Amino acid sequence: MKRVHSWFAAGPLFSIAWLVVGTAGALPPPESEPTLPAKDLAPQSIALSGSGYAVDSPTQVKNFLGQFSIRSDWGEIDAAGGVLLAHCRDAGVGGTG
Questions:
Q1: What are the contacts of 88-95 at 24+ separation with CB within 8 A?
Q2: For 35-66, what is each residue's pLDDT tens digit?
């Protein structure tokens, strides 16, 4: 039985590693996160304005969640995602929930 030298077996691995590292610099830069109208991101059941509050639009999207900014009589409130926006409503901002 012939013995395969380890340098011979490692050659293809080094070639693959060189290709991966060499092409990494050629990747395009990541896309910026979008800004969309709040009405397109918020759940349909959420009113975006009412007595004493209003949700700012457009809304920045970060990590797949809308970053809602609510202006109210109590100050500014930030809500990350529609679920948290609904919790703000349930807590008394913008209605009785």
A1: 89/46, 89/47, 93/52, 93/53, 94/47, 94/49, 94/50, 94/52, 94/53, 94/70, 95/47, 95/50
A2: 999 999 988 888 899 888 899 999 999 988 99
State the Cα–Cα distance between residues 15 and 71, nearest whole angstrom.
Answer: 57
Q: Which residue has the tokens 């918020």?
A: 42
Domain ranges, ordered by start, for the chain? 35-90
DSSP 96: -
pLDDT over 50 (residue 97): no
Cα separation values, 47 from 3, 42, 67, 84, Å:
74, 9, 16, 14
Contact call for residues 81 and 46 (beta carbons, < 8 A) = no
What the block records as the tokens of 72 is 């109210």
Q: Is the Cβ–Cβ distance between 77 and 57 less than 8 Å?
A: no
Rounded to whole angstroms, how far apart are CA atoms 31 and 29? 7
Checking if the pLDDT of 96 tops 70, the result is no
